[in-house]
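Weekend entry, working from home. Most of the wet-lab plans are on hold until the incubator is repaired, so I used the time to fold the two sequences that have been sitting in the queue since the last round of cloning. Logging both here for the record. First:
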Amino acid sequence: MSEPTTPEYLIIGEIVGAFGVRGELKLEMLSDHPERYARLKRVYLGAGADGAKERREFEVQGARLHTAKRQALIRLVGITSPEQADKLRGLLMQVPVSEAWPLEPGAYYEFQIIGLDVRTTAGRELGKVTAILYLSSNDVYTVKANEPTAKEYLIPAIKDVIKEINLEGGYILIEPLEGLLD
C-alpha cells in the first residue's frame, strides 16, 4: 500500500495581470470556494508546476471578487503600481496546506487521491491513480496498472463505481461496471 504525498502548499490561483492604477492583481481563481479569497491574510507567489521556484511570501492588504469573470482582485503589501503587479503575471498564488479550505464529507483534494492504490471489490489490484480528468459529467481517475502490463484504466468517480476511498489505508476500492476493465 502507498500513501499520496502531501504537498507543503496548495495553488489557489494564477496571476493573469494587473488591475487599476494601485497595483491590484487579477487572479484566475483555482479554488471551488471563492469566499476563501476575502479571508486571505498571507500568500506565497512562485513559478513552476508546483509553484516552488523562488516562492515569496506576501501579506494580503485586501481582496474582492471580480464580478465579470472567475477572477479575484488582490492587493498585496508592497505592490503599489500596475508595473509591479504586471511583473508578477504568470506566478502561482499558494497557501500552506495547513490553511486548506475545509471540504464537505466525501470530497477530497487532488493531492489526496493521486498516488492511491486502486483495487476491485473482488480483490484485483489495478494500479495507482496518476491523474484526475475533470469532465462536465463527472471526474475520471486515470489508473496506471502495475508492471508488467502498464495498462491504463479510466475509472469514473461515481457512486456506482467508487465504493470506498481510504486515505489512511492508501487505497480506493471500486466495483467496476461491466466492460470497464476490458
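Second, folded right after the first finished:
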Amino acid sequence: MAFGNIGQLIAGTAIEATKQNVINAITGPEPSKTPATPPAPPQPEAIGAMILGQLQAMQRPLPEDQELLVQFHTGSEMFRVLEIFVPTIQVFVLSGVDGEQNVMRVIVPAEKAQLVCKIRKVAADAKPVRVNVRSPRPKQE
C-alpha cells in the first residue's frame, strides 16, 4: 500500500466520522427500543436509627471517668435525658430530669428530636451515668 492510499484512507475515515457527527447532532440519538421505567422512589431514611446509632457510637467507647450528657430542649424547658424508649423507629419517648430534679417525659417524632450531646468527666468518687436505649418487649403468644 502506498503512502497516497494511506492518506486517502485516513481522510475518508475522518470525513465519514465528521459527517456522522453532524447527522447525529441534527437528528439526536437513536431512541431506545426498551421502554423507560421510572426510577424507584428513594427509601425514607430511618432518621431515628441514625440518631440512636450516633448516640451509641459516642457513648460506647467512653472510659469509666467520662459520661455522655444528653440534653433535650423543649421551648423554655431543658432536661437531661437518662432513657430513650423507642416504641417505633419514628417515635422517641425521652425520660429524664430537669434542673430541679423533676422527672420529665417527652414524646417526640424522631425527625424532630434535637438532642445536645456532650462528653464530660465525672467526679473521682462518682459513677458515670449511661443513657439507656430501650425498645418494646416482643409480645408473648
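Plan for Monday: verify the second prediction. The mean pLDDT is 82.
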